[in-house]
Structures are given as structure tokens and as C-alpha cells.
Amino acid sequence: MIPQHSTTSDQALSMSENRPDKPEEACGVFGIYAPEQDVARMTYFGLYALQHRGQESAGIATFEGSYVHQHKDMGLVSQVFSETILDELPGEMAVGHTRYSTTGSSRKANAQPAIVETRLGTLALAHNGNLVNTLKLREELTKDDFHLVTTTDSEMIAYAIAQEVNNGAEWTEGAIAAFHRCEGAFSLVIGTPEGIIGTRDPLGIRPLVIGTLDSDPVRYVLASETCALDIIGAEYLRDVQPGELVWITEDGIKSVPWNQEQQRKLCVFEMIYFARPDSIMHNETLYSYRMRLGRRLAEESPIDADIVFGVPDSGIPAAIGFSQTSGIAYGEGLIKNRYVGRTFIQPTQSMRESGIKMKLNPLKDVLYGKRVVIIDDSIVRGTTSRKLVKALREAGATEVHMRISSPPVTHPCFFGIDTDTQDQLIAAKMSVAEIEKQLEVDSLAYLSWEGMLETTREDTKTFCSGCFTGNYPVAIPEQIKRSKLILETATV
Is 267 labeled as catalytic in the residue annotation? Predict the structure, then answer.
């Protein structure tokens, strides 16, 4: 038994300071049905393309007839798998997952896919999203003597399907019955001995796409984003629709709309920040949308300056758009160390106090004597932004103006994004003028909520923007809501 220790306030502060000052994503999911292909290797590369969606753990389960091979562990996709391990994962179809924890702590037992035995054989489930009725669902499952071995809502979904199947339902019938018991966000890829199921919740809060392989017969792929299709040479076919189940077998693909009240409420942060800029949503790359955000931001909040640049990497497309509209020269003011996130050696307190140069280093000769505009996609706690502004001034910038290509984040997310408790969100506690003073910038402006949505060029009612407004598309139980409205005691 592993002992649990309470974290001291100093340790908790250190942990908070070292966390990225960004919302953090939950997971990436991948599934493939291709008996003629090396499905484990293709799943590996699909997960490799989805690494940005979760860096804590990764896993693959393959189906060789009724037998399931699996491997999952903590770490990056490239750390978890090797040539030898992939050779030990034969099969006709595969399900893969890369994880960032939201419901359930970061530990090996919570790595996915979740594997559950049923009357019809083994199922392997990969989940992106977050349920909000976990307390009720857990109670229903434990009454039926299901022994949960993880602390994830994903395992609960898998056992809910098993419960329906064990009571006589077939795979798709049992899955649909289980989905009706789930409330919140869930994009799922589920492997079974007969085929692969893909689905999205009735609001489609998290993305899921379908791709095809150039083969005879045509074979199908499911993934969180289109970038995972590109890496294996698959062609994007379409999105899985909200409230739709797709069933992929030797006979092809079958669509079953399991919820007749489908609405579109895609998380708008997928478009602003989470998904890779080369992924396609609404028939264009997200790079194009993010450039438009920057153009709109320049229209709403103009400024006189010498150079504009983005916080690498997510702020760059909006910075280019801002430059195009404002006429301010675009340049690079910061260089990013892209490997710093994987160091397990913590800096000393004096090193932390010296700034954020482990991750971002200013280009002094570019910034010296310049009035600069720095573009970022969001501010969560403000700790990183404040250190960044200080570093720019130390590099010789005479003025520092900050522009944010999204509205202020004022509320936590309950649907698969780790946005901290509300008391840690700087915009929930301070006005823009107060944040400006806190960050010590010459000026600060956020993109308007209307501008963010109108820039999508889609129906503005088809997005979830609860983290900006507090208006959630699904009712949040009070017990769940309270857990993110107050500062929780951290444990390790």
C-alpha cells in the first residue's frame, strides 16, 4: 500500500507556480479497424500526433479475434512504447489514448484504455471529456457489485456498458443504453471483439472525426483531431455528429443517431487553443481561425507600437493576424525551450524567482528600445504573464502592451479541461484594469466574447463558452460545482 501524505502549503504553492498558466486539456483518443495493417503502429503514430492533448500517460489495446493485447504506462507516447512493445500488440483493430487527468488522479492505474470484461467479451474504452453525474453513476454501479479499480469517470462508462451487456443487450444496444445514463462531455472510442464504436455526447462538446484509409475494402479510423489522420495517410471523411454512434466492423461503417435532441456545443477553447493549428474544424484549419482572432483583436483594441509577437506557440497565429490588421511589424521576441515540460528536476526557489527563462527566453537585441505588443490566447492565474512582462522589460522593451485573443476566463470548466478552482482564476477576482496593474503592463485588452464567437463564422449558439460566462450547456450538480468553486487541499 502506498502511503498518502498531505501537501504542505509551501509545496502546494510550488506546485501551482510550476503548472502551466493555461487551461490544460484532458485526452486524445484514437481507434482503427484495419485487419491488413499494423494497427498498433498506426495507433502509436496517431497518438503521437495527439500528444498535445495529454502528456501524463498513454495506452494501446489491440484486438486479435476475441483476445485483447494491451500496454499502457505513465509518460509521453514515445516513452511508453518501443518497437518491441508494438510488435507484441498484434490484431485487426486497436484503441489508443493519451491522457491528461481531470477526473481521477495522475497514476498508472488510471491510464487508458479502460479494460472491462463482459458477457460478450472484453471491451476497451478511451474517453475524452468529463462526466458531471459521476456520484450517481458510481452509486448505481457499486450496487451491482462492480468493483471500480480506478478513480476515473471513464471506467464508470465502461462498466455501465458492461452492465447493460451483461443484462442481455448487444454491443451497440448496450452502449446506447449506457450513454443515456451519462451526463456531461464524452467523445469515446470503444473496442470490442466484433468492431469499434465511436460516439459523441448529444452536445458534441469534445471533437471526434472519422477518416478512411486507401484500401480495398475501405477501412476506417477515429480520432480526436484530423492531424492524427494526416500522420498515417488517412483522409478526413467527416465529424462524428453530436448524439451519433458509429459502428465499424468488417461490413463497413454504420451510423446510429442515439439521441434525437442533438445540439452543437463544441468547446470554443478547442478552436482557440487546444486543438493543433493544422487540424480542421468547420472546413478550415484552426490556424486560419486563430489568425482571424488576431485581426479582430487589432480592430477592437488598437495600439501604437514597434513590434508584435506571440507567446510561443499558441499565440503566434493571432499575433500574425494582429500584425496584418494593425500594420505593426511582426517579429519573434521570445524563443521557447520545447523540452522543458518534461524535466522532473525542480528548480530551486531562487531559480524560480529569477523568472521563467527555463521555458521562454527574450531576444534582447530584437526588444531593446522597442514598444512591444505581446499576444497570448488566454490568461488563467496570471503568474506566468507577470514574469513574462518582467523579462521583456529587463530585455530592454520600453513599453509592454498585452493583448489576449479570447475573453477573460472567469469560471471553471466541468467538461474535460483543467481550469483551476474559481478562486485561482485571476479574471474572476479582478477587473481588467486591476489585472493590468497586477501584470505591470502598459496596457491590457482581451478579445470580446462576441468577437470570439463571430470570428468562427458559424452559428454563435453552437459553442460552449461556459468558462467565459458561467452559462453551462449541462446543469452542474451543486456538489460537483462546489469542488471547483473553492480551493481544494492538494494530496499526493
Answer: no
Q: Is the pLDDT of residue 335 over 70?
A: yes
Give CA–CA dist 344/341, Å, rounded.
8
CA atoms of 405 and 329, how far apart (whole Å): 18
Which of the residues 27, 182, 413, 464 is marked catalytic? 27
| DSSP codes joined into one string, 140-157 | HHHHTT----SS-HHHHH
- Distance CA(435)–CA(364), nearest Å, equals 26
CA 475 – CA 462 distance, rounded (Å): 17
Q: Which residues face 10 on adjacent strands?
A: none
Q: Taking a C-beta distance cutoff of 8 angstroms, is the pair 375, 297 a contact? A: yes
> Is the pLDDT assigned to residue 305 strictly greater than 70?
yes
Most confident of 127-141, 142-156, 232-246: 232-246
DSSP string for residues in 431-460: -HHHHHHHHT-SEEEEPPHHHHHHTTTS-G
For 360, the enclosing helix (H) or strand (E) is: strand 360-362
How far from each other are the two terminal CA atoms of the chain, in whole angstroms? 14
pTM of this prediction? 0.90
Q: Are the beta carbons of 243 and 260 closer than 8 angstroms?
A: yes
The amino acid occupying position 455 is T
Q: How far apart are CA 448 and CA 301, in angstroms?
A: 10
3-state secondary structure of 280: strand
Residue 488: Cβ within 10 Å count: 10
Q: Rounded to 5 degrees, what angle do the CA atoms 410, 412, 415 make?
A: 135
Q: How far, in Å, CA of 99 to CA of 106, rounded?
A: 9
Alpha carbon of 276 to those of 3, 227, 239, 384: distances in Å? 39, 7, 16, 22
